[in-house]
Design brief:
The chain has six helices and three strands, in the order ααβααβααβ. It is mainly α. The protein has one domain: Arc Repressor Mutant, subunit A (Orthogonal Bundle). It has a three-stranded parallel sheet with strand order 2-1-3. α3 crosses α4.
Length: 157
């Protein structure tokens, strides 16, 4: 089931995963951060500072960023949707090229221009691409929807 859902995601046909995850290895705080990340809508971004507010720890920005970097399953828990407070891609687990490729995949799917059979291997190859090269195999000049911004309500847990 996980393989099928990942293939659907990379084809631009799946926005959410319904795979049960065992997150018991994380601390209660990390699990709260990961659950909040899972609620960030497809194709949107959230800053680490906004995430800190959502989990009820606005002064714990560094702890939130560390929990984001420790996300055990980074596509199923979409850590790529969490950006730095300066509205830039983060340099955490996977690096900015992978994060950019995944956000690009989601934006293309939302705008009706899904990539042609983009796979996790393609995302990995994006890390090695030359600066300025496109992240996916979709046409460079394909119109993209601007990323949707969404700020989640503060978690009451």
């Amino acid at each position: 089931m996980a393989t099928l859902q990942l293939k659907q995601y990379f084809a631009g046909d799946r926005e959410r995963f319904d795979i049960l995850l065992d997150l018991s290895a994380g601390s209660p705080f990390e699990r709260r951060v990961w659950e909040a990340i899972k609620r960030v809508p497809y194709g949107t971004t959230l800053t680490d500072a906004e995430l800190a507010i959502i989990v009820g720890r606005p002064a714990a920005l560094r702890a939130v960023a560390t929990a984001v970097d420790r996300t055990p399953v980074p596509i199923l828990i979409p850590r790529h949707r969490v950006i730095a407070t300066e509205r830039e891609l983060t340099d955490g687990a996977g690096g900015t090229d992978r994060q950019e490729a995944l956000l690009d995949l989601e934006r293309r799917a939302i705008s009706g221009h899904p990539p042609d059979r983009l796979t996790y291997r393609d995302v990995e190859l994006a890390r090695a691409r030359a600066p300025g090269e496109p992240c996916s195999r979709a046409p460079v000049n394909a119109p993209l929807a601007a990323p949707r911004r969404h700020v989640l309500e503060r978690s009451r847990s």
